[in-house]
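Q: Sequence in, structure out?
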Amino acid sequence: MKKIGIIIQARMGSSRLPGKVLKQVSGKSLLEYLFDRLAQAKKCKTIILATTINPEDDKLCDKAEAYGIPVYRGSEDDVLDRYYQAAKQYNLDPVIRITADCPLILPELIDMACVAFYNENIPDYLGFKLPYPEGLADIAVFPFSALEKAWNEAEKMSEREHVTKFLINRPDRFRLVRLDVNSVINEFRYTIDEDLDYEVVKQIIEDFHPANDFNLKDLEEYSLNHPEVVNRNKHIMRNEGYYISLQKDGKLGSRT
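A: Exactly. Output:
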């Protein structure tokens, strides 16, 4: 039977900040903080970790298994294939995409996206409209059928490395729905791509510790009261990884 499920993409080999998902804060890895936050979502209780076959990612599998989270291991660069194979193996439909560099992801927005997905009569893609607080609302929901079309047809490196770009880049073919966050902290970053990002997220976690159930309202209040924290990484480019992928387009070749 098909079921809605979250797939987390994670790997140790980040080019900008290697090993970032296992960086420690108050005795726990960022990946474990993410697991804890995803478990708070009420509309989806199935969570899968999709990582690579590289030996260095064995550590991620160990963390997932300790939490009782199933694992799929596949291609490092073809993340679209990794998602497709994971969704197929675990019979997920629709799929919720989450990246492991967002340990402060908001469970309330996952629930909002799940409800909206069905209320909108199953769009091909549902996410949040930019700008939104990066790292808090990096959530996409899509049916397996749309994922399968992308998997079959995507040839550009940027559309294989970034799971939803094939859909987003073709609004003439796919029905796209975007939700508003409408937050006073839309301009800030709560994701982890660089050392400064880690410093910001680390400080936030430590200041809330031991609680890990803070919501959007809590983070809005915190950010407005602690500009010295959230302004540290404000200058870092949003979605830089995607623009790096665009430079590789044409190198992957077609799939047969």
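Residues 6 and 179 are 19 Å apart (CA to CA).
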